[in-house]
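Two proteins, back to back. First:
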Amino acid sequence: MIPTRVHAIVDYIVGIVLLLAPNIFNFAYDDQAAVWIPRVLGIIILLQALCTRWEYGAFPAMSVPAHLGVDVVLGIFLAISPFLFGFYHRPGNVWAPHLIVGILIVLQALTTARAPAADYDRRVGTHIS
């Protein structure tokens, strides 16, 4: 299992990469779905990471299992977005980062521990269920 501490760090990295993906991968800017889907999901992933009750959450309001469930939904949506919004046929393989990162988000969610490490409860003085 991936520790929640590692998942949290990866979420911040993935959120930033998704925000910058249209620039990094030079997506066609005439296809707004290809550009805005990763940006919006990047913002959601960053906000969700900040609001999760784990080692690097700033505003611990969301449980880890709820976070992981949302990750699965977001990852599936990102992976199928080229097909839902019709940009899978665009030149330059714009669809590939959406599909690959979406699958990786789902895999990470399915292999992450369902609760923070035991010492997290002692550090913050709460019990997380």
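And the second protein:
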Amino acid sequence: MIDVDLFRALTVCWLLVAIAAFVALRFRTAAYGRYVGASQAPRIPARVGWMAMESVSLLLFAGFFLASDRVRQPAPLLLFGLWTLHYVQRSYLYPLRARMHQRQMPISVVGLAIGFNVVNASLNGYWLFHLGPPLGPEWLRDPRLVIGALLFVSGMYINVSSDAQLRALRTAGDSGYRVPPAVGLFRWVSCPNYLGEIVEWCGWALATWSLAGLSFAVWTVCNLAPRALAHHRWYRQQFADYPARRRALIPFVL
């Protein structure tokens, strides 16, 4: 069994890896989606890859929860429910709805994502359900949990609704890209779906009030902020009429 000090040291190391990933992604865009290019690296259908890499988080976190003695405690059950809500959407509903039937994903990207999800789900699941302090019934009234859960649900709504707006831009069999209309948060940013996911996991960090939760929020920012900037730059390069006042990720700021 890992003690608290070792766990915290490992989590700090994980945070440092996130910062290194952020620096790397500022110079090199991850090779999936529109950035796969003409590489001859081995690939699999994007839908299969997406479901494989995201479902790891759902299943592993559930394993930590079900193996704990906290399964009937209200606060851990709520946190498990939030995580499950996100990853059922992310692992199954999103790839089944997305128009990715003709797309391929590099196996290397799937492997890296699985590795990340194994570490991330393990850190969060082990801390919340085994190593961290018990979250008694009084935690349900704690402002950190209440505000954090509200942020989580709000961020997920932004993420899912923005993905739906992007999906609506394409007809059946269409795999091209178009300028998102000025609807919802697309009025102000190119990637409200990423903004929503960042809000989600910042809410998670607050709700769990843990270093593990914070590490997930930091990783989300370090992964999605460079990708949002890359998307924004790509839109401007591809579409001469792209809205000049639209920012990449944060309205009026970034």
